[in-house]
Every structure is written in structure tokens, then in C-alpha cells.
Amino acid sequence: MIDFQTNPESYNHWKLKFDGSVATLSMDVNPDKTLVEGYKLKLNSYDLGVDIELYDAVQRLRFEHPEVKTVIFNSANEKVFCAGANINMLSVSSHAHKVNFCKFTNETRNSIEDASEFSKQRYLCAVKGVAAGGGYELALATDHIILSDDGSSAVSLPEVPLLAVLPGTGGLTRVVDKRKVRRDRADIFCSLEDGILGQKAVDWRLVDEVAPGSKFDAAVQHRALEMAKTSDRPDEEIGVKFTPLNRKITDDTITYDYVDVKIERNKSIATITVKSPNSDDLAGSTANLAGLTLDEALSAGADFWALAACRQLDDAILHLRANEKEMGTLILKTEGDSATVLAYDDFVNRNQSNWFMREISLYWRRTLKRIDLSSRTIFTYVDQGSCFVGMLAEFLFAADRAYMLEDQFDEDCRPAPSIVLTASNFGSFQMSNGITRLETRFLGEPESVDICKTKIGKKLTAEDCNKLGLVTDIYDSLDWNDELRIMVEERVSYSPDCLTGMEANLRFAGPETMETKIFGRLTAWQNWIFQRPNAVAEGGALKLYGTGVRAKYDMNRV
Amino acid sequence: MSDLTEDVLGETVVEINYDELIPNNVDLMNDKQLKKALESWQPKYVDWWNEAGPVNTKDFEVYLRTAVGVDPKGWAKFGHVKMPDYRWGILLAPKEEGRTIPFGKHKGEPVWQEVPGEYRALLRRLIIIQGDTEPASVEQQRILSATAPSLYDMRNLFQVNVEEGRHLWAMVYLLVKYFGREGRQDAEGMLERRSADEDKPRILGAFNEATDDWLSFFMFTYFTDRDGKMQLASLAESGFDPLSRTCRFMLTEEAHHMFVGETGVGRVIQRTCEAMEEAGITNVNDIEAVRKLGVIDLPTLQKKINFHVSVTSDLFGAEVSTNGASAFIAGIKGRFNETKIDDDHQLNDDNYTVTRAVDGKLVDVEETAHNAINSRLLDDYHDDAAGGLGRWNKVIKRAGFDFKLTLPYKGFSRKIGTFSEDFITPDAQVVTEAEWNAKKDEWLCTDSDNAFIQSLMVPCKEKGKYAGWIAAPRVGINNQPEDFEYVKLF
Known about the structure:
The structure holds 2 protein chains of 2 kinds. Chain A is an alpha/beta fold. Chain A contains 23 helices and 22 strands. In chain B, a hairpin with a 2-residue loop joins strand 3 (351-358) and strand 4 (361-368). Chain B contains 13 helices and 5 strands. Chain B has a single domain (4-488), classed as Ribonucleotide Reductase, subunit A (Orthogonal Bundle). The two termini of chain B are 20 Å apart.
């Protein structure tokens, strides 16, 4: 099982150091601590295990260290910054694993950019030694790259000549879209095995500045403090410690405090249920929640429902992606008290000027994006006892289809379900395309977003939701089980590849952003190249790498 | 004859619930979902019957058979009834415990009691197509009662009509019970399409052709309802058990329709032979002389056979069809008499010979057995249809005439399938378009042939009497006496 939970005490590959407003995150990959057998992580190259730790570090820097305004990203290895994804790892991995790996590493790099832009925790990359391939992509994810001008440190994307795969981790989007490198220069850069050094790297916009080897550390320190000045993060606040998740995994269930996953293997379905707090949790009742203070929320820390549920959901999705590949359909449900969820959602929204509440909101945004980017069919079921409110109501719009029960089942006395839209649904959770799910949903009828806005805070019945276009369809209790069963059975009978393609093409209508380009190009080009004999056949470049033998390519252009 | 209600009440069968308007053995009383669907559909059905069913007949009291149960005692209850009050029921053949899927890739697995999601679209399409034919034929025949050659025949027409109506109920039951909301919409669609309507026609071409004379009606019930029989028999093999059980019971009723067709055409032949004998005509091809006797000459009957067989053959779809293959492999639609065939019922490595016209000749081509499923069913249909012709020819032979009615070749005058681009004669010669057109009038009815048939369509409403072009039946329905009042016309 691939476990996405870790903590700094158990890191194999990273070191964290704190000095007031500046933290240093040093890459120090242990070649022997690989995720699976069959390769060694030489020269600070990475596999998914390295990236899982990186993701954990980025998360903890945001939540546990509100005082950190700049993160210096460097290498503990004098000779090499980072050699990128480990080639032997790629050559022994299944296609599905490679794709999952690339997706996760991109999400992590996006989360670095997200930390800088929204949490104002800036990232500074100090490149000493060679930053090659995915290693340079790590640098690209930061705000500012300083390259040591020592005659050997360089940035490079050698994949095309050496490996016959697309450079970097996100293709070349960050090179031309983020750093805006001229296309002809980028073309040359991509064909140089040894990369580019010194001032030329600055001239070509590949890095932001160079510093002589002797003055490199001082330059980095200076730049870090300068960047810290642009941050609005607090100076003295105490962070929120990410305590270990209370997670139980059995054959067919994964259980957390507020998230349950039920797996039906014979049907290829995983049902994820997010639950509102029980009354004995902190602020569990609406009465307490109404008088909740920020101090109380901070002292609840990782147990604060709005954070805890999000962490658990995030882990559940990552777990399903990596370990339950055959569960092609994810059904999203919620369970609990709508008023409680509404109170939490409102509290988070009201206190956006507080760093912790801002982080919670941003974390929901990233986690909801992770749902969008999951190559699984997503159906949301709104039934009795559900609490689709605010952040949880986003599940309706993140789904490929959402269905709502119109009435009550005879044997169930709980009221017919309703949902509540809040301000969260109109600006807190932009998708990768930069606009909200509702804006994306109603791209052809923007006035529908405005109409929905007038319904904020109101209980919307199935009929209301249907009329407003918030659900795909509504069924009464007589039809509910049959309709959903048949729909899912039909879905499961289709080609998983085809569904992945169809869903991804339908989910991201609207504007193109760097993120959508990264995932779109990664999916279209990298995954294509990863399947092609020129890269992965026995005589393909990826397989021959390290043998000294040059690959013989099929010269047909496709 | 006791009145219907009493008769039915006297023989209550446990599985039938008489508290309901609808005879059924599907526990309608306790099935809320089904009840809800039918509550909305049933009144629309009655509206459809009144609007598109037999013209000007709502007050007729017709001696009809009503199926109130599926056992031998329940499925044939006779009594006079007004058609809009007919008790259309939902009756499925009893469930066979432990039944397994008899063919295809799921062979040997337990039959499905619910629609497997994977095959939902395929099943739904098949049921809609089958269901659409049922009301279509009622619409096609709606004007016939005005020209009925006897009360006996009129009653048979109505019996066929109400049973086609019940067959629609059977298909609608499957749709609303197993296909949720879409199924309910499909059920309404069945009542919205109309035979030969320009905007919303019936799905299959043959069901948009008017049946405007009684000879056509008999031919239709013999030839086209026999397609229904073949289709129902193939669906009766289905791995989707409710479909299988529904079709098995429908087959018992379909047999009666073909009886109406076979005896109807037989009685026409008998009357023609009798008239020729009485008039001393020996040349059966002396059409003019025969027609002067007010009966239908045998060559014209052959033309009608040619027409109905070719149109009906098109209903089997393309001989080589991936849809047919999909339905077989999925275990949804089997072959005719599937369970009686001695093979592995999977046919993964088997071939079937399909005839095609190539360079002016008919040649046998091997196709995969899966792709040739429709072709096989069409061949089985032609074999099955030959039986009645043998009996008709006996009537002609007994009367001493030298004439033999034959089935046209399966490739004759086809619009669908492997022969749709070819020009083939009824006796299986491949000819050119010009040659075919030059001889067309020898094979198919001309306008003047049809006009002649129409001219004979004069009603005969007297008890025990028959129009001059058709003989009386040998026995009455339910052994009723010769002058029984099968339809009370007021």
C-alpha cells in the first residue's frame, strides 16, 4: 500500500530548518529508501515516496508555521541540486503508476505556487549543482530562482536528447507560460544535454539571478528576507500541528473521524461519505458554534472539523487513487447536520483575515481540485440525512453527475434532503480553470449563477435544485435505488480509458490557465509518449538509458 | 354462458388479485412503483384505444377471451365485453426456479431478475421495438371492422386487437418496472407514435403500411404475426428473466393470431375453389372469369403472399448484423428454439451460411454464427411459414385444381439486408433492375388487383352469414353454434 501520511520525524529525503520568518527545505534523498524495489535514488533523483514527503512538508509549512514567510528550497548535496524523476523507477513502473506519479507531483508543485500566491508563503529556489529535468521543474514551481555561478551549476531539460520523453513534470508549460522563455530559446534549451549555466540562464529568463559561488549563501539569505517582506503572514502566531490521522483500513473500508470510504469491489465503486461533527466534538452543537472564538478554533487545531474533514478527505482520495485503481466510480455523499456544517462554513468565511481560516479555505479548494483531477467517475448522491452545505455542496458541482432524492423513504423518518448554498460556492473554491464550479457549470447561462446567489442560505429542496440546475436529476423514493443502480452498472461497463478522457474533457470548460494547460498537456502528450515504443519498448530510449546504447526510433511522425 | 365476472370469480386462482382492475400475477397490489406508473399510464392507454383503436366500436359487445391467469384454467375466459372495458392484464409465465442463462457469454450463470446495467440500452431498445409493433398493428387494422365479412371474423379481428393491446401492456410492464423514469417515458412514447403518421410514425416500416382489406389482415396475421412469434420465441430464451417469462406467455396468444390468419386465408382459398367448381372453371389462371364470381383468384393470393413475406422478411433486420451478435453474446436474445438446439449455445468458433447475390448469382458465404443470428432467424421463419402453405395447397388439390401456392425466395423484393440492393425474382433468380421491373406486376398486386379486392369488402353483419368471398369456419369460437352472435352491434 502506498501511504500518503508521513511527518518530518520520519522523512527519509528532506530536512527542514527554521530561522524566524525563513525556513529551509533541503532535498537530501536517501538512495536506498525507495517506494518499491528495483532502483536506487541516486543524485537526488526522486520517486513518489520523495514527493509524498515534499507534499507533507509544504502542507505543514503552511499550517504548522504561520510565522514562515519565505521557504528556501535547496539541496543538501553539494554537487547536484536534483536530477529529476528517477529514470530506472520510470522504466520499471506500470503506465498507471507513471501517470499517477506525474499527476501527484504536479499537484504538489501547484500547491507550492498556491502557497506563495494565496498563503503568501514565498518560495525561493537556491540552485547549486545541476537542476535537471524534474529537478528544474521543482525550481520552476518557486517564485524566484538563484543559480550559483560557479562554472558547473546549471539548469537543464535533457529529456528529449537522452530519454525521448517530454521534459519536466508539467511538460514545458512553466517554461513558456510562467517564465515566458522565448520559444526558440526554449527549443534550444530542451535539446541541450548539459543545460545552461551562469548569466546566460538569466538572459534567457531560465533563472532570476546568479550569484558567485563564494557569495551564494549570502545572496540567498538576502533574497529570502527581501521576499519575506512581501508576505502578510503573522509574526508571532503559533501554528496548528498536523497530528496523525485516526485512520483504520480494512479490506473494504477506510474509516476516519469524519470520512468513511466503503468499497464494493464487485461493482468497482467506492463510496466516500463526509460527516458533520457529532455533538460531543468541539463546537459540535450549533449552540456552541455560534459563540465560537478564533482562539477556540486554533486550540482545537487539527481537530477543528473544517480542517480535520478536509485532511481526511484529501488522504482518502489519494489513497483510492494510488491503491484502489479498479474502483472506477467514486460516489460522494454527506451525512449529518446541515446547521452544523453551515455554522462551520460561515465561521471560516467570516474570519478569512485570520491566517488559519484562510488556510482551511485554501485547503478545501485544493482538495476539491484533487477531486476534479481524479481520473474516476464522480457521482454525488444527495439523500436523506445528508448535509450538502457550503464547502460540502461543492460536491454537487465537482461531480460528473449529481442526483437528489425528492422525498422520504417510508421506513426513514428523516426529512427529505435539502442543500444550502453559501458564499463559499461563489468565490472560495476556484477550479484549475480559475473560475468557480458554478461559473463553469453555467458557462452558457451566467445569469443562472446570479439567480443561485439570491438563494444563499436558503434550504433548497430537490425540486428547487432541479429548477436551478444544481443537480442532474431528481428521483423519488420509488425510483431512487433502481435508477442509481442501473446508472452505475451502465457506467462501469464502459472503457475506463474512454471515461477518463471523456470526463476530463467535460470537467474543465471555460478559461485556460497554467494549471489546466499543465494537466491537459501532461495527459495528452506525456501520457501518449509514455505509451509509445520510441520511449518504452525494449529498444526504447527510457529502457536503454544507462546502457550506453542509443535507441533506434521509428521515424514516422504521428 | 355465465357472465364474465361471475365466471372469473368462480375460479379464483391464488396468484391473481381480483381486487384490481388489471388481472396480473406480478403482485401489483403491493408494488408501489408499478402501481404509480400504471395509474398514470392506464388512462392514457384507454384514451389511445378510443382514439386510435377500432373505429366506432366502443359500444359493441364482443365475445372475447380474457386472460386472467397463466394456468390453463385462467388464460381463456370467454364472455361478451365492451372493448374499452376489456381487462388488459399483466401476466408472466411462472418463474422457473434455478433457471440459468441458456446461451451467450454468460451461459450457465443465474438468469437476471433485474436489468444488468451493462445491457440496459440494448434491452431497452429491443423492448421498445417489440412493444411498438403491438399498438401499431391495432392502428393499422382500425378501419377493418366496417367491412368485416362476418360477425365471426369481426370478433376474431377484435380478439387479435385486444391481445395486441395486452402485448403492449406486457412490454410496458417491463419498461416501467425495470427501466425507471426513462422506461415510463418510453411507455408513453408507445401511445404517442401512430402507424403511418408523418411526424411520429411507428418504428418499423412494415407497421406503417395500412391494412385496409381483410385479405391483407389474414395475410398479416399469418405472415407478420409469425415474425412476432419468432421474435418473441427468441426473446423468451433471454437471460433477463422477466422478459423471458413475459414473452413465453405472449406466445400462447400469438398462436391464436396465426390461427386467425391461417384459417382466414384457408377459407378464402376454399371459397374460391368452391366457386370455380360451381362455375365449371378449370383454368385457375383465368383471372377475369374467376373474379366475375366475386371471389379472389389464386394468382392474386400468390401475389399477396409475395408481398407480405417480403415486407415481413425485412422485419428481421440485416441478415448480417453486429446488433444481432451483441444481443446473442450478451444473453439477451437467443435463437428460435435455442434450448432445443444441440450445440454449445455460445457459437464462439461457429459459422453460419448466409446467401448473397454476387455477380448475378446467389452464392453461399460463411459468416460468423454470431453475426448471422438474424439470418438464421429469417431462415427459421421461412421454414415455419411453409407449414400453412402446405395446408392451403391441400385445399386446392382436394378441389382438383392444378395450382400451388409457394413462399417467395427470402431475397425477393427486400428493402433491408443483404439483398436490399439486388433484384431477385420470387423463384430465386438474380435479374437486372429492368427485368425485375418489367415483371413486377406478375409478382406483386397492381392497383387494379387491389381495387378488385377492395370491391369485395362489403360487410356482412347477419348472424351465421359470410361474405361471398370467404367460406364459413369449420368450428365456432369456444365451440359456439353456427349462428352465435359473436358481436352485438348496438
